[in-house]
Design brief:
single chain, alpha/beta, 6-stranded parallel sheet
């Protein structure tokens, strides 16, 4: 289909299954004769019909893929409309949408056009047109195509705010089964390169460079990198997925790992017929949150089991398995211990530590500090005084299972 509107219809729809499109972490002011700016608050978002939060201009450069990954809607063997944008067309769309106040940035990915290097070269050209020819200063998130050269990743990293390389499947065996043209090595190579260059750029910023050099210095992917894992396309357990995420955070310093529940868009003997329950995706995000912000490790979260508890959020499940850790006295415990209390989040834990410097906290103060008392009251005390605590972990589990069904955000 040759018309621009026709291409947009095909390629915007083709991009909807990629959820790693967060835009936080970058800030860039406008320049003389330039267009737009990027703010750390992120770009505009909308909700798709399957509940995913995506940027308003989120599209593929092409869905005409040379690969035949079993789980992918754009696989080579699928009989579906194909389209490919030119770099100039994507740049024109981005500028026109921005001027109409529809968007504040671009999320650009692509199927593999002939090969990784050719695809990446076209994406770099798109970003270069926007930055250098059209003077666009808004947010750009681009995918690095696994298997492409480091030179192209370097060129893209100097043009965009965030990059991502999608791992997609958790193990080499899963890739061999469903995406034999991909390999972990091809994914991890650009991921490792991006991580190293981000560290180098940050080290350069920390040095006391002369003013002229500091002004002209280019940051490399200032908003960091992310990745995506598909959940439920293979038998990989929750434990294997979270262990992989923990390793990715530690090895590559990722900003986020996104979890995307498998959608059965293709048929095949190696694919499940039904999608996994969305609750599984939700529990994985909760476990991921514990890794990133609560000081938990993967072995702690699972304690030998392979699956996350469906009835309880991972933090509460851990608390019930480690009931002897509680109660925690909020007036005396350190920040890390307070953070382990179910119903206490990062912000409320910081507020507790700050507020108790002025005076001793009482149970009635905690709700005002953001603590979810329906859950937390069973795991904390104030100066040794408890409020409606239940000492039987089994009975408490039954009660908290009911509470967890009422609360959308259990932390």
């Amino acid at each position: 289909m040759g018309s621009l509107i026709g291409k947009l219809s095909i390629l915007a729809d083709a991009a909807k299954y990629d959820v790693s499109c967060s835009s936080s972490g970058s800030k860039r002011a406008n320049t003389p004769l330039g267009l737009g700016s990027a703010y750390s608050a992120g770009i505009c978002h909308t909700w798709t019909d399957d509940g995913r939060c995506v940027s308003l201009l989120k599209l593929l450069l092409s869905n005409d893929c040379a690969y035949d990954c079993a789980y992918c809607v754009n696989r080579r063997s699928n009989d579906r409309p194909r389209a490919t944008f030119t770099p100039e067309e994507v740049a024109d769309l981005t500028i026109n949408f921005y001027r109409r106040n529809y968007i504040e940035g671009l999320f650009l990915s692509s199927a593999v056009i002939h090969g990784p290097d050719e695809t990446m070269l076209r994406m770099v050209r798109t970003a270069a047109i926007l930055r250098r020819e059209r003077r666009f200063n808004g947010y750009i998130h681009a995918k690095a195509i696994p298997g492409c050269s480091s030179e192209l990743v370097e060129a893209m990293g100097r043009l965009v705010d965030r990059m991502s390389v999608n791992v997609e499947l958790p193990t080499e065996q899963s890739l061999t089964l469903l995406a034999p043209q991909k390999s972990k090595q091809a994914v991890f190579r650009p991921m490792n390169f991006i991580s190293g260059r981000i560290s180098e750029a940050r080290d350069d910023q920390k040095r006391h460079l002369p003013a002229v050099r500091r002004k002209s210095a280019q940051m490399f992917v200032p908003a960091g990198q992310t990745t995506q894992l598909i959940i439920g396309a293979t038998p990989d357990s929750d434990r294997a997925i979270i262990r992989l995420s923990e390793a990715l955070y530690g090895r590559f310093g990722l900003k986020r790992v996104y979890y995307s529940a498998y959608m059965p868009v293709n048929e095949g003997s190696s694919l499940p017929v039904l999608p996994p329950p969305l609750l599984r995706e939700h529990r994985l995000y909760q476990a991921d949150w514990l890794l990133r912000f609560y000081g938990f490790s993967a072995p702690e979260i699972f304690d030998g089991s392979e699956a996350l508890d469906e009835a309880l959020d991972p933090k509460t499940a851990w608390a019930l398995r480690n009931f002897s850790f509680f109660p925690v006295d909020v007036n005396r415990a350190d920040y890390e211990r307070i953070l382990r209390i179910p119903g206490v989040g990062v912000k409320s834990a910081k507020r507790i530590v700050s507020a108790r410097r002025a005076r001793r906290l009482r149970h009635e103060d905690l709700k005002a500090l953001g603590v979810v008392m329906k859950r937390a009251r069973h795991f904390l005390t104030c100066d040794g005084r408890a409020e409606d605590m239940i000492s039987d972990a089994g009975l408490l589990r039954l009660m908290l299972t009911d509470v967890s069904r009422q609360l959308t955000l259990p932390f």
